[in-house]
Amino acid sequence: MLRTNFRKKNLITATTYTVLFTYCLLAFQGCKEANKLDVDIDDIELKLEILRFEEDMFAMQGIDTIKEAGALRQKYGPFYYDYIGGIMGWGNPDTKEAVDRMFYYKGSDPAKRVFKISEGIYKDFTPYEKEITDAFKHFKYYFPKAPIPKIITFQSQFSNYIDPSGDGYTAIALDMHLGDTFKPYSFTQPEPVPDYLLKILTPKHVAIHAIRSHGNSLFGEANLNRNFADNMILWGKTLYFLDAMMPKTEDYLKIGYSPAELKWAKDNEKEIWELFVKDKWLYNTVSMEYSRFFNE
Predict the structure, then answer these.
(1) DSSP H or E stretch at residue 129
(2) Regarding beta strands 169-173 and 165-166, do their DSSP bridges make them parallel or antiparallel, or are they unpaired?
(3) Which domain holds residue 243?
(4) 20 to 30 A Cα–Cα from 246, which one of 15, 213, 236, 253?
(5) Could you tell me which of 205, 174, 200, 166 has the C-alpha nearest to residue 111?
(6) Which of 144, 199, 142, 150 lies closest to 176 in space, CA to CA?
(7) 127 and 178, same domain (yes or no)
(8) pLDDT digits over 271-290, tens only?
(9) Do 59 and 180 fall within a single domain?
């Protein structure tokens, strides 16, 4: 099953971060102490399987499209089906029509230009592999018997699927991590990427999104849409999970803020709590009302 953790229309607001930050203070008192989550992972051996779907797709020659698509399907298994049928919406992955749409896309000038820009950043994936491996070593430290997914990179045509997880894989859309000054984000269809989301669409967020996606695929969303407090607790757990997996990574990156926004959230913690209590948000069960605080 294809899962994703990205929704373009909304972002966790500054007030929401205050809720999550305060949850950490209440539930995990070590947040203000020395980082007890910075555990020793030097002896943990882990070699991630990292597959570059976008490179394999753009390398296809188009001489025998059915045969080439079959080889891609054989190599990528469930992700191929999720990519063709879900992420890109090209129809039944086993049909010639879907294969034709894939080859049409990869042959288009806009797709090739984006791929060229992406390769300029990610051709050498070594720095990002190191960060992701470090995060999954922390995961293995806490969950030594849990399986480790394949890491698959891909090009998404600027879709909502920034960090999908599926059967045996966690994937990252590299075209959604080209930097906050990448101008085409302002012209994506059917809607441009809002300015407030641009700060998380950077190379610095590749590893964060990879490990968060994997964590959410295992533990997340079970209590969503019950009430405001349940969502607050779930997102607090998500942030704590990120702290445990990436203890050396700056908090503002993990929450998706600028340093100034994070400072504002901390400075205004008391006032935000007063607002939530006064307006009786904590046990609000109307998801259409409270979801704006949590949807990303």
Answers:
(1) helix 126-142
(2) antiparallel
(3) 14-37+226-293
(4) 15
(5) 174
(6) 199
(7) yes
(8) 988 888 888 888 887 777 77
(9) yes
Residue 225 has a pLDDT of: 59
Radius of gyration of the chain (CA): 20
The one-letter amino acid at 139: F
Per-residue pLDDT, 292: 73
Residues paired with residue 165 on neighbouring β-strands, in sequence order: 3, 170
Question: How far is residue 88's CA from residue 79's CA, in Å, rounded to a whole number?
Answer: 12
Token pair for 111 = 């797709």
- The mean pLDDT of 168-172, rounded to a whole number, is 97
DSSP class of residue 154?
A: E
Give the global pTM.
Answer: 0.86
Query: For 132, phi and psi rounded to 5 degrees?
Result: -65, -40
Q: Are residues 276 and 201 in the same domain?
A: no
Higher pLDDT, residue 295 or 265? 265
In a domain, 42, yes or no: no
| Domains contained in the chain, number | 2
- Read off the DSSP letter of residue 149: P
Per-residue model confidence as pLDDT tens digits over 93-105:
999 999 999 999 9
Backbone angles phi, psi at 169, to 5 degrees: -145, 155
